[in-house]
Design goal:
Blueprint (H helix, E strand, L loop, with lengths): L8 H14 L4 E3 L15 H20 L1 E6 L22 H15 L4 E6 L26 H13 L3 E7 L3 H13 L9 E3 L8 H11 L7 E4 L23 H4 L1 H4 L5 H16 L4 H10 L4 E4 L6 H9 L8 H13 L34 H10 L1
Helix pairs in contact: 2-3, 3-4, 9-12
Length: 381
């Protein structure tokens, strides 16, 4: 997510080497829009860096890795991801899906993508802490499930994509893709993964809905859990806002990340910190071990920025599975703070990035990805 901006090429190569050679990691996740925040100057640079690293290591290393990447869903403002139809923004139409994948293969320097995911849906869905679904934001021009699957099928038949997955998806969306694939006789295109946020602050959505879809008896989808540390908030380092490094991710992406340090989330984090102290563990490894040990988690997306942070995140595997006592106490806190990252919150951080929609981390207005939050922000302002 940060290769090519916050993490330069040399540092990225070092992280990739440590991950694959020292830690035994074989899954690499990226997106066409990375690094974040996305800009016309840096878009696609994360894939380029991974491609250059792969080139250095040859075909043998490529065959040992699972490369997962994502393509943008609907945005009428992100106009720099496509060479054609720039004014249209990004869509999950057949032409754009094909164009995006061909560009990704070139940047990654590979003949195929192991798992191709849609970064977020083409249709409207509430994202990134939005508290509810608003019917008035539905769009009649949303790409159909059938047209999206048929576009991916063409890429699979061409040998360019091996598996299909989803990201930031809902139970309705995941189920619709699966049922449509069956109806079209494209059972090989049933999504195999869903990459959604999952952490101690964001459990409710997944566990109360998507978990049933992902069950092996039902959709058999593997969760690729992203933001296991809630943007770093679950290390406890943001509990004192006056002590936070201005170069930290939370400070750089205030509009996107603020939900993790707003008062409801902070109240929950303080209780999780007290539990970590009781267990004589750092909060970060405890939060990671919780995610690692969940039986429905296929893999966890960690966004380490330094070699030490990467090693620490991997070492948290040694804490899993957590004891019954630890899980009981975690669930007691969860029952009191079920959705602490959702809602509209008073912004207490002086950083103007949050109240200026043009500076939000998606590189344009927040309505690009979540128009519901745009409505909430405008009402508050």
């Amino acid at each position: 997510m940060m290769f090519g901006d916050q993490i330069k090429k040399t540092a990225a190569f070092e992280l990739l080497d440590i991950a694959t050679k020292e830690c035994g990691i074989n899954f690499v996740d990226t997106s066409e829009i990375y690094p974040m925040p996305s800009t016309p100057e840096t878009v696609g640079h994360s894939e380029l860096i991974i491609g250059e690293w792969l080139k250095q290591h040859g075909k043998t290393k490529r065959s040992e890795l699972v490369i997962s990447t994502k393509i943008c869903g609907f945005s009428n403002e992100i106009t720099w991801c496509r060479k054609s139809n720039n004014e249209e923004g990004t869509r999950l139409t057949s032409d754009q899906i094909t164009e995006a994948v061909n560009a990704q293969l070139k940047r990654l320097g590979t003949d195929y993508i192991d798992v191709l995911q849609f970064n977020w849906p083409d249709r409207y869905v509430p994202l990134y802490g939005a508290p509810e679904y608003l019917h008035e934001l539905e769009r009649e021009d949303a790409a159909s499930f059938q047209s999206q699957l048929e576009a991916v099928d063409s890429l699979v038949k061409a040998g360019k994509v091996r598996h299909f997955g989803l990201s930031n998806e809902t139970p309705y969306g995941a189920t619709s893709f699966m049922l449509t694939a069956e109806a079209l006789g494209l059972s090989h295109l049933k999504p195999v993964t869903v990459q959604n946020a999952y952490n101690l602050l964001e459990r409710n959505d997944f566990e109360s809905g998507m978990l049933e879809v992902c069950s092996p008896r039902n959709g058999n989808l593997g969760l690729l859990a992203y933001s296991p540390l809630a943007g770093g908030a679950l290390t406890g380092k943001y509990l004192r806002s006056d002590a936070v490094d201005m170069n930290s991710r939370m400070r750089q992406f205030v509009g996107y990340m603020y939900r993790y340090i707003a008062p409801p989330a902070t109240a929950a984090i303080r209780e999780y910190q007290a539990l970590a102290d009781y267990l004589s563990l750092p909060l970060g490894p405890l939060a990671l071990a919780f995610v690692y040990s969940r039986p429905f988690v296929t893999s966890t997306i960690i966004g380490a920025t330094t070699p030490q942070q990467l090693r620490d995140n991997v070492m948290a595997l040694n804490l899993a599975p957590l004891s019954d006592d630890a899980l009981l106490r975690i669930n007691e806190i969860y029952q009191k703070h079920r959705d602490p990252s959702k809602g509209a919150f008073e912004v207490i951080d002086p950083n103007l990035e949050y109240i200026d929609p043009s500076k939000l981390p998606w590189g344009a207005k927040d309505q690009d990805v979540d128009p519901e939050l745009d409505i909430i922000i405008n009402q508050r302002l």
